[in-house]
Write a structure and sequence with these properties.
The complex is a heterodimer of chains A (323) and B (749).
Chain A lengths: L4 E4 L3 H11 L3 E4 L5 H7 L8 E4 L9 E3 L3 E5 L4 H6 L1 H6 L1 H8 L4 H6 L2 H6 L28 H4 L21 H8 L3 E4 L3 E3 H4 L14 E7 L5 E8 L10 E10 L2 E10 L6 E2 L1 H7 L6 H12 L9 H18 L1
Parallel strand pairs in A: 1-3, 2-3
Antiparallel strand pairs in A: 4-5, 5-8, 6-7, 6-8, 9-10, 10-11, 11-12
Helix pairs in contact in A: 5-9, 11-12, 12-13
Chain B lengths: L15 H5 L15 E7 L5 E7 L1 H4 L4 E5 L40 E2 L5 E7 L2 H9 L2 E6 L6 H4 L17 E7 L2 H7 L2 E9 L11 E7 L2 E6 L4 H12 L7 E4 L15 H15 L3 E4 L2 H6 L5 E10 L5 E11 L6 H14 L5 E7 L16 H8 L2 H9 L3 H6 L8 E3 L5 E3 L5 H12 L9 E8 L8 E7 L5 E4 L9 H13 L6 E3 L19 H28 L6 E4 L2 E4 L2 E7 L7 E7 L12 E10 L4 E12 L6 H20 L29 E7 L18 H16 L9 H11 L1
Helix pairs in contact in B: 9-10, 10-17, 14-15, 16-17
The chains are: A alpha+beta (323), B alpha+beta (749).
Chain lengths: 323, 749
């Protein structure tokens, strides 16, 4: 690592102002579980001069519930979310998604805001500078997306609108989007779904900070399921994850929300699958059909067709699990 | 049965307290006054000529003491052979040039991505890193080749001018008459299989501190092979007698898994060159990512053809193997692999040809748990699955044809055979069948598999010194380092048993030191308990004799009338006439040696794994649900350690079968040199397992002990692969990841 300044912020305004003044030379640090890897591997051409510490801002890690729903401060730790009694009781999918992230050590440090804002995990983008030099890919201002012609087994099966095929790696984003979450930043309030962009990943301006996540109360009688497919039972990012929220009344599906993660540059809403379920009896055939429809438009690359098969099955299973 | 005072029962590990309290010192903790930090600059190309390298700016960075490039190499370094005593090569083989392929190269050609091209020593890591960024290198990229079979084709990029056609090693051998064997066969099965490179991923990464004291070179590093490999390599590199090179280790090694053997020389050399130029001690400690690039298991491809009669009798076997070590040379590896090919499937008619061709994949071809036999077993044995299925013969029955039993002459080196001293294979199979419920029901999507192997062993000498102090305590000197497998405990307790003194009075010197500790063949191939153990038994005999000679005067009896038990010397016929060891009153020194003898029976223990897995045919995921390991270790000196060794190694077997592979792309770039994308199993991925120790009577090893540990990897990976075969009815190359499994399913359906 190279030397940098470390500044403790006491308010979000102060932190935003430090970002603004630095003209791109400062980075935010919360849990640091993503940032420290980026700095150690020195993957970006620009190295920050200053790290602005958000952990010193009081109250930014609060978790509250009122009649409207859940409000989670951006600095809330993933382990606190995974173990929170109210979240486990009324928003179990969020607890499960938070608990599926990485490993206990990372969940004890990592925050929900950091998880949503984390950089992508493309292994070309992340190639360490000290092992022969970082790669200046399309996302870093270069001209090539390496995954297109090389090893793309982990990449998007739904294209790359900005030319970058890296997937959104966040586990918790998938579940929050399925729950209809909204977020507040120092500058605006938006639906979480609109918070993500293919590149650079979020809509955040260079001096904008994510402060809070709001999750509306689930509909009466709704059920949810979150499935994460990975090689190992811990540590790994998802190869595919699926979050599904269904409201079933009298055996028929009234409302459906199905979101896939790690399959596209942003969380991928399976609208076609949701539509096919509405008003239908949720059985094997319906779930199977929804899975087919969810992946019908997939455009896998040379090495990731298997992700299509896995995603299809996961959609089916998530639907059946939440019926 | 012999009654033992100290061994064969659960022993508290002597290194346990140091490790759990954090006082154990590893390479990471080692410091020398005034030492500098060394950092390495790596090649961005898989194959390129360094046209120009300018280091002026780097040298001017404040705090930088030295910058080294290929221009700083001692002359003749690329001609130094790494052949160890006792290793046999066919006459046509190119010598195993130790310093070629990875590291600074005298011909200024980099031959893999991530090979060092320069290094810096500085006061701080920051200064060294800054200086690395200021080294200007101009490369002329050269065409690269990444596959051994491709490298042998006409027109393939050539790696070394003195290795025409990229043939480092090409060896053919035939036992019996293969042509006739195939004529006798009713059916012939053919298959091609591959094994992937695996990363050692040791808890502690490679590191070395080096410095010069005039013309004397001192190196501190955690190697498992100081005496046979690193010492002669460094002495040859700097034209010094071995007595002027001191290599010592930290008290503990943070795991080796095979990765700290002869290959260490390439890496240690960087620290030594920096130290020479800086005139100060230099410490080079690799990051996790660097460490993962610095050596992996060799990747192989094997074409196999097996002739078989309808009753399952195997009549002929033919192998054609291509071995890809990256740009490195290590023909003795092929020698081992080649040898093991002849014993995977037992048959009178076997023909094999193996070719080792260097390529531009990352530095590979190094030893790994199951050194060279794992690769042979892992491809050849699964073919028996196909045969068993097609002929409708129980797999275990078919497999049993290939078991080596007590007294069998086992192929052990080119044209050499060794008599197997004992084998608990039948007991292992019988127990395993029951424990896994082989004939019992299986759940939905559940499949059972079994795997077996007979490991190889490294036949290297060991020497031991025992010193009796005047207070009756005893110093045990061995040249052995604790790599985590319980060496200090095992050897101390064997010494206690052999001498007849309580383990509490014995102190085993921590780690090796080529200046002060006796020569040992290294902590590899499960050889320490066996080889160093035999040397201990011999030294103990001498020590007892010398003690009796002194005590006979004091006790008024002849030396051969005396006995020594639990630290008390007494007259056998009159135990009341006795004295404690402290009453001997004289310091006494005794030595013992183990020298390998190919004529002597060979103590090697088979190991068997049984597994139940579930196969999710929709997602392609394989999940082991139960594992049974049955390990013939001759005698377990410390049974709990054998069980923990079984456990540690079975997880690497699961990883090899299902998730672990070093992935490089079409450019030769390793994409997953980090523990996040390199999927070694976590504790959650290890299923419920049962570890069973098999102890047949063995007359060869110390107290009947053989080796334990690394051999469990091979049958575990094989058992999982066999279980998956039952699900798919086709063999899939390891690691059996969802993409491969789903593809295989599509083909068979």
């Amino acid at each position: 690592m190279k030397p940098f300044q470390h500044v403790n912020a006491s308010t979000t305004d102060e932190a935003a102002s430090l970002l603004h003044k630095s003209r791109g030379k400062a980075k935010l640090i919360a849990g640091g579980t993503d940032l420290l890897g980026i700095l150690t591997d020195d993957i970006l051409p620009a190295y920050p001069r200053t790290l602005v510490n958000l952990k010193t801002i009081p109250g930014l890690d609060s978790i509250k519930e009122d009649s409207k729903g859940l409000r989670i401060g951006a600095l809330a730790k993933l382990s606190d979310i995974a173990g929170h009694p109210v979240i486990k009781d009324r928003y179990p999918m969020i607890a499960r998604a938070a608990g599926s992230v990485a490993m206990p050590q990372v969940r004890n440090m990592g925050t929900i805001g950091g998880n949503l804002c984390q950089d992508n995990r493309c292994w070309y983008y992340r190639y360490p500078n000290h092992l022969g030099g970082r790669l200046i890919c399309l996302r870093k201002g270069g001209t090539i997306c390496y995954t297109l012609t090389r090893d793309n087994r982990l990449d998007s099966i739904f294209g790359g609108p900005e030319g970058c095929f890296a997937v959104c790696p966040s586990d918790i984003a998938t579940s929050l989007v399925a729950m209809g979450a909204t977020v507040t930043t120092t500058r605006r309030a938006v639906a979480l779904q609109d918070f993500f962009t293919p590149s650079p990943g979020t809509i955040l301006d260079a001096d904008e900070i994510l402060t809070e996540i709001q999750v509306p109360r689930p509909r009466e009688g709704s059920r949810s399921a979150y499935l994460k497919f990975r090689l190992r039972k811990s540590i790994d990012f998802a190869m595919v994850n699926v979050a599904c929220v269904l409201t079933v009344e009298g055996g028929l599906c009234r409302e459906a929300s199905i979101v896939l993660g790690a399959v596209a540059p942003t969380p991928w809403r399976a609208k076609g699958a949701e539509d096919v379920l509405r008003g239908r009896l949720v059985d094997d055939a319906a779930a199977e059909e929804a899975g087919q429809i969810a992946l019908a438009n997939a455009t896998p690359l040379t090495m990731n067709k298997y992700k299509v098969a896995i995603a299809r099955v996961l959609v089916k299973r998530a639907i059946l699990a939440s019926a | 049965m012999t009654k033992f005072h100290y061994i064969g029962k659960p022993i508290k590990r002597l290194d346990g307290f140091d490790k759990v309290t954090g006082t154990a010192k590893f390479m990471q903790d080692m410091e020398v006054p005034g030492m500098l930090t060394g950092k390495i600059l790596y090649s961005p190309h898989a194959h390129a000529r360094i046209k120009r390298i300018i280091t002026d700016k780097a040298e001017r960075v404040p705090g930088v003491a030295a910058v080294v490039t290929h221009n700083d190499l001692p002359p003749g370094i690329d001609e130094i052979s790494g052949l160890e005593p006792g290793m046999v090569l066919p006459p046509t083989a190119v010598p195993p040039y130790l310093f070629r392929g990875w590291g600074l190269q005298p011909d200024a050609i980099v031959r893999c991505m991530g090979s060092p091209v320069a290094a810096v020593a500085a006061n701080t890591e920051e200064a060294a890193t800054e200086a690395l960024g200021l080294i200007e290198v101009e490369y002329e990229p050269l065409p690269a080749v990444f596959d051994a079979e491709e490298a042998l084709k006409p027109g393939a990029p050539q790696l070394y001018p003195d290795v025409p056609g990229n043939i480092v090693f090409d060896w053919k051998q035939e036992m019996g008459n293969v042509e006739n064997g195939f004529k006798e066969a009713d059916l012939v099965f053919e298959e091609v299989g591959e094994t992937q490179p695996q990363s050692h991923l040791t808890p502690d990464t490679r590191g070395a501190i080096a410095w010069w004291e005039g013309e004397r070179l001192v190196i501190c590093t955690a190697t498992m092979s100081a005496y046979p490999s690193l010492l002669p390599a460094m002495a040859a590199a700097f034209k010094l007698p071995e007595s002027k090179v001191k290599i010592y280790g930290p008290p503990y090694m943070g795991g080796s898994y095979g990765g700290r053997a002869f290959n260490e020389a390439c890496f240690v050399l960087v620290a030594v060159l920096l130290a020479r130029k800086a005139g100060r001690p230099v410490r080079v400690k690799l990051t996790r990512e660097e460490d993962m690039l610095a050596l992996t298991r060799c990747s192989t491809r094997l074409h196999a053809k097996i002739g078989v009669k309808r009753d399952g009798t195997i009549t002929a076997v033919e192998y054609r193997a291509f071995l890809n070590p990256g740009p490195w040379f290590y023909p003795p590896w092929v020698n081992r692999y080649f040898t093991h090919l002849f014993k995977v499937i037992k048959c009178d008619n076997i023909k094999a040809r193996a070719t080792l061709a260097p390529t531009n994949i990352p530095f590979s071809g190094g030893p790994f748990r199951g050194f060279a036999y794992m690769e042979a077993f892992l491809v050849a044995q699964p073919i028996l699955k196909r045969i068993s299925q097609q002929l409708g013969i129980d797999y275990l029955k078919l497999l049993q044809q290939s078991f080596w039993r007590t007294g069998d002459k086992v192929p052990n080196g080119p044209g050499r055979y060794s008599v197997l001293s004992s084998s608990g294979i039948d007991e292992a199979i019988e127990k395993g069948r029951q424990l896994i419920d082989w004939d019992g029901p299986t759940g939905p999507d559940e499949y059972i598999g079994a795997g077996y192997c007979l490991p190889g062993s490294a036949q290297f000498p060991s020497n031991v010194i025992l010193r009796l102090n005047r207070d009756g305590s005893i110093q045990l000197e061995t040249g052995v380092i604790e790599i985590g497998a319980g060496q200090y405990t095992t050897l101390t307790y064997m010494a206690a048993e052999a001498i007849g003194a309580p383990p509490e009075v014995i102190n085993m010197t921590r780690s090796f030191d080529t200046e002060t500790q006796p020569w040992d063949g290294g902590q590899r191939s499960e050889r320490t308990t066996y080889s160093t153990g035999l040397a201990i038994v011999e030294a103990a005999k001498e020590l007892r004799q010398k003690i009796f000679n002194v005590a006979s005067k004091k006790l008024g009896a002849k030396a051969d009338e005396l006995e020594l038990e639990e630290g008390v010397v007494f007259v056998k016929a009159d135990p009341a006439k006795k004295m404690p060891l402290s009453a001997v009153g004289l310091p006494i020194v005794a030595t013992g040696a183990f020298v390998p003898d190919p004529e002597r029976p060979w103590a090697s223990g088979p190991v068997v794994s049984f597994v139940r897995v579930t196969v999710d045919k929709e997602t392609g995921q394989v999940t082991p649900t139960k594992l049974v390991i049955l390990n013939d270790v001759g005698r377990a000196i410390n049974p709990p350690v054998v069980h923990t060794q079984n456990m540690g190694t079975l997880s690497a077997g699961i990883g090899y079968a299902l998730t672990e592979e070093v992935i490089w792309d079409s450019d030769g770039r390793v994409l997953n040199a980090n523990p996040q994308f390199y999927h070694t199993p976590t504790i959650l991925d290890v299923p419920d397992f049962h570890s069973e120790i098999i102890e047949p009577v063995d007359q060869i090893g110390p107290f009947g002990a053989k080796g334990a540990g690394e051999k469990v990897l091979t049958p575990t990976a094989l058992a999982i692969s066999a279980a998956v075969y039952n699900a798919l009815k086709t063999n899939v190359n390891t690691p059996i990841t969802p993409d491969k499994l789903l593809k295989a399913l599509r083909k068979t359906e």
